[in-house]
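Protocol step 4 of 5: obtain the predicted structure for the target chain.
Materials: sequence only (see below). No template structures provided, no constraints applied. The aim of this step is simply to have a reference model before the mutagenesis design in step 5. Sequence pasted as it appears in the construct record:
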Amino acid sequence: MPHVNIKHFPKEVTDEQKRKLAESITVALIEHLGTRDGAVSVTLEPVEKEVWNEIVVEPEINGHPELLIKRPDYLRAQG
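Step 4 output (structure tokens):
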């Protein structure tokens, strides 16, 4: 039952873009985790730039390094 929550800076995303994104993510999860299409859920969560560090970086990236499978390059200089 994979659930993917994509946090991003706010921007307009069309329904077609959302559909294609969910489809691509679902295909990758089926391939790599052996799940099925109907078990996948995907959300898009806009996060304002001013609170990105507080909402995303500290609790999710720095707060759980053991879960992180790809570190963003904007944090590489910080360790």
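Step 4 remarks: Helices lie at 15-33, 52-62. Residues 49-78 form one domain.
Proceed to step 5.
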